[in-house]
Amino acid sequence: MPSPPSPQSSDILPPPLSRFSLSYPSPHERLSLPTQKRVTRGTLLGSSAGFLLGAINSAQMTSLRFRAENAHRLPESTKGWYLYHKTKNYHMMYYGLGGGLKMAGKIGFYTGGFFLVEASVDRLRGERRDFLSTVVAGMSVAGAFSALNRLPMITAARMAKMGLVCGLGFGLMQDALSLAKGKRLRYVDFILRRKPGRDGGREEMEE
Q: pLDDT digit string (tens) for 85-143?
C-alpha cells in the first residue's frame, strides 16, 4: 500500500507576509514606527524623564527648605538626630513624588504634542517626511509653552529659537536615519541633482 505523500514545506509554513502588511512598520515611517506608536512611546519616554527630573529637583528643594526651617531648633541627642533625618527623608519622598508626577504630566503633554504636530504637518505636506515638519513642530511647542506660561516677549523669542534649534537637530537626525535605511529625500535629490523617485522615496516592488 503506497504511503501518503509527505507534506511540503510550503504546505506547513504560512505564506510570507507582504513588506507593506500592517504587521511590519513601513521603512519610510519616522523612526520606523507608525504614528500612533511613535506618539505613545514618545509621550511615555518624555513622562518618564520628566518624572525623574521633577522628583530629584523637588526632593533637593524640600531638603534645603526643611534644613532652613529647622535651623533654629537642631536636635541635641542621637535620638533627636534620628527623628530629624527620618522626618526630612519623609518630606523629601512625599514632595519628590508629587513634583515628579507634576513634571511628568507637563513633559509628557509637550512631548506628545510635538509628535502629533509633526505627524499632522507631514500629512498636510502630502506625507513628505523631512526636517521641515520637525522644525514646525518644535517652534509650535515652544510657542504653546510661552503662551501657556505667559512669558515676556524676550523670553518667548528665546524659547522660539530653542524650539527651532532642537527641531532642526532632531529632524536632521531622523533624515539621516531615513537615508541610511534607503529612503530618498527630495531636498537631498535637489542638492545632488538627482531625479526623485516616486513619492520622494525609493520605488519598491511589493513582494
A: 999 999 999 999 999 999 999 999 999 999 999 999 999 998 788 999 999 999 999 99
Rounded to whole angstroms, the Cα distance separating 80 from 74 reads: 8
Residue with cell 499632522: 120
* Helix (H) or strand (E) run with residue 176 in it: helix 153-180
Q: 163-175: per-residue pLDDT in tens?
A: 999 999 999 999 9
> How many angstroms separate the CA atoms of 121 and 140, rounded?
11
Instruction: 57-64: list long-range contacts, CB under 8 Å, 24+ apart.
Output: 57/99, 57/103, 58/95, 58/96, 58/98, 58/99, 58/100, 58/103, 59/92, 59/93, 59/95, 59/96, 59/99, 61/95, 61/99, 62/91, 62/92, 62/95, 62/96, 63/88, 63/91, 63/92
Closest C-alpha among 140, 120, 116, 98 to residue 42: 116
Number of H helices, E strands in the chain: 6, 0
**159: its cell numbers:** 524659547
168 vs 115: CA distance, rounded Å: 14
Closest by Cα among 3, 106, 127, 122 to 50: 106
DSSP H helical ranges for 70-152: 78-124, 131-148
Using pLDDT thresholds of 50, 70 and 90, give the confidence band for residue 4: low
Give Cβ neighbours of residue 154 (< 8 Å, ≥ 6 apart): none
Q: Specify the pTM.
A: 0.75
